[in-house]
Amino acid sequence: MHIKRKSIFAFTLIFLCITVYAEIRIVPVSELGPENKHLRASELITHILTTYHYKKTNLDDNLSDSILTHYLENLDQNKAYFIKADIEDFEKYRYQIDDSILDKNLDPAFEIFKRYRQRVDERINFALKTLDTDFVFTKKESYRFDRREDDWSKNKTILDELWRKRIKNDVLNLKLTGKNQDEIKETLADRYKRIRTSTFQLNSNDIFQSFINAYTTSIEPHTAYFSPRTSENFDISMRLSLEGIGAVLRGESDYTQVVKVITGGPADLSGQVNVDDRIIGVGQGKEGRIVDVIGWRLDDVVDLIRGPKGTIIKLEILPEDIGVEGPSKIITLTRDKIKLEEQDASSSIIDIPETKTKIGVINLPTFYIDFAAQAEGKDNYKSTSRDVRKLIKSMLKENVDGLIIDLRGNGGGSLSEALELTGLFIDRGPVVQTKDASGRVDINYDPEPGVVYPGPLAVLVDRNSASASEIFAGAIQDYHRGIIIGEPTFGKGTVQNVIDLNRFIKETSEDHGRLKTTIAQFFRVSGGSNQHKGVVPDIIFPTAEDASDQGERAYENALPWDKVKPARYYPASAPVDNFLIAKKEHEKRIKENKLFQLLLNEIELKREAENKKEISLLESKRKEEREKLLESRKTIKNAMRVAKGLPPVEDTEEETEKTNEEDEETIDILLNESAKILNDLIVPPVDNRIDTRTVNAEEIPGIDSNLQSYFNKYQ
């Protein structure tokens, strides 16, 4: 789901193989208070944020106001526990939190949490008692499950009614899956008790982390504090030897949501796990019972999903294009080592028979480099630019007429590799500018003169292309070196550094955690930033109908777009008219392209599910809505299969698994259309031709015979 505010508890973690099952210990209220290490850490964090953070921010009443708002949202994002009287009582802290932090007084954070814990206990007691109700599903009423933008309930009576509907909805969901009354009661009793247990397990470190993150993200969204336990998970996610299911997850309200599917991991290779899917149950082994994980802490779901390589795990998933009312699906995965080679750059060729044109495609999941091998002086260390260079030379031998760099879903990586990769397509010059907290601007240049590929170029991006991807795409666009196609990118134009707080606190051996803080911002050579706006493609696909709640734009306090003085660079003199011609041809083509229209229908179905905030509690209507949704999905899927030359299938569990591989093997719709756009620039429908070169062949030092003939082809 896309929201304007993100929960600070929603840390994303890569699920790996290490088995660390959390000890279930109920923390007594008497232990919930600030410790000396928290006071030391908060003092150091405040010094770093007010002195070295890129965004100059004072810890004052305005920030105090925002900290309280964020902290309450962290604890009770969906406004399901606190009542209006609690919020009014907390108002005494609204303009005092800044003074409390400066005075090393963290009591307000712990007092608010104790009230939250009390309210959770009351709600769970109410829920368990209400489970004995004999619900009637013939009454016309609805349940508003998304209350993030609503006001707090005025009193307990109103909150009781909200919870009655929540419980009735939970019962109906399970009833529609075929569970009997006893099974429903047992499942929900376990679910509600687990919510209480998870809350009562939170200790002083957890409370401090949540409070300090209310502070850090009140400044901007990419600054965060990692408690000792979260730091350990962060270390695991940064290691190159990854094992597990290969999915980056976050806590989103009561659900565990998939943020990213790691290329080469079991989830990716299965073809059954997608971004925005919600995991609602986990089972161990082929015969293991599915454990309901709705309402669980993210850390505890992590512990349940982790396991050794070769072991079986079952996941119950609410698909990304299905609302919270279901239906769900159960998939089986084998935990495995994530094959890092699957994240390497790879190539393919698209043939366009109408014009007998070959379009080369390089898929780039991330910007990678083996720093260790490089530091050891090894000649054959792996990196993005080295691999892409080899792929280009290989495709030139195949006489490709144009090249697409596919950066969809590429969240970034090595800055040096973004510079190196850009240098494969321009002769020389600046690639990106960096401005630090002091206001000093440094220019990062193409590290090596010469061009590896001089021909027609397109860069395919989407809303998940971020950071290093945006640096590369922005430079290609500024140099007029190629055409950018797809959706506006994520919009992350900032640089973070992780600081180990223990380096500055020597008088004790206690672990004080780490602080990830924003220290600089990237700017394009043209002077503008990718921050917030992202890279806006020259041709925007209609899949990006509303980008206002995507990526960096979804954060209410993201750093704004900014600009610096343009760097000195020399763009190619590409005729803009050719881009306009290609855009018109694209718009005409997709209106007649049944596959493209079906894709838009599929996206619209997903948007409707995402935007839904309320559902009926009338069983007959829910069945009707569920059947309609399933039929719509099935109709679209089968129509797409037929258009791809595949036979339609029944939407059964067995056939779904069987056809996933067939669906994955067919060329994707957006990439195919991108190839046709680039082809319009190579073989335009009118007598125009785009010059996508920045240099002549003779200007390139050490050019080989393949490249020489290729340049001659485009003279």
Give me the secondary-structure topology:
Elements: E1 13-14, H1 36-51, H2 61-75, H3 84-90, H4 97-102, H5 107-130, E2 142-144, H6 156-176, H7 181-201, H8 204-219, E3 224-226, H9 228-238, E4 243-244, E5 247-252, E6 255-261, H10 266-270, E7 278-284, E8 291-292, H11 298-305, E9 312-318, E10 329-334, E11 336-337, E12 346-352, E13 357-363, H12 371-375, H13 384-397, E14 402-406, H14 415-423, E15 430-436, E16 441-445, E17 457-461, H15 468-478, E18 483-486, E19 494-500, E20 514-524, E21 539-540, H16 576-592, H17 594-611, E22 614-616, H18 619-643, H19 653-665, H20 669-682, H21 705-713
Parallel strand pairs: 13-14, 14-17, 17-18, 18-21
Antiparallel strand pairs: 1-5, 2-22, 3-20, 4-11, 5-6, 6-7, 7-8, 7-9, 9-10, 12-13, 15-16, 15-20, 19-20
What does this structure look like?
The chain is an alpha+beta fold and 715 residues long. The protein folds into four domains: 22-228, no CATH class; 242-337, Roll (Pdz3 Domain), CATH 2.30.42.10; 341-575 and 689-710, 2-enoyl-CoA Hydratase, Chain A, domain 1, CATH 3.90.226; 592-672, no CATH class. Helices cover 40% and strands 15% of the residues. It contains 21 helices and 22 strands. The strands form five sheets. Strands 1, 5, 6, 7, 8, 9 and 10 form a seven-stranded antiparallel sheet that branches. The protein has a six-stranded mixed sheet with strand order 12-13-14-17-18-21, sandwiched between helices. A hairpin with a 2-residue loop joins strand 5 (247-252) and strand 6 (255-261). The protein is globular and about 70 Å long. The two termini are 49 Å apart.
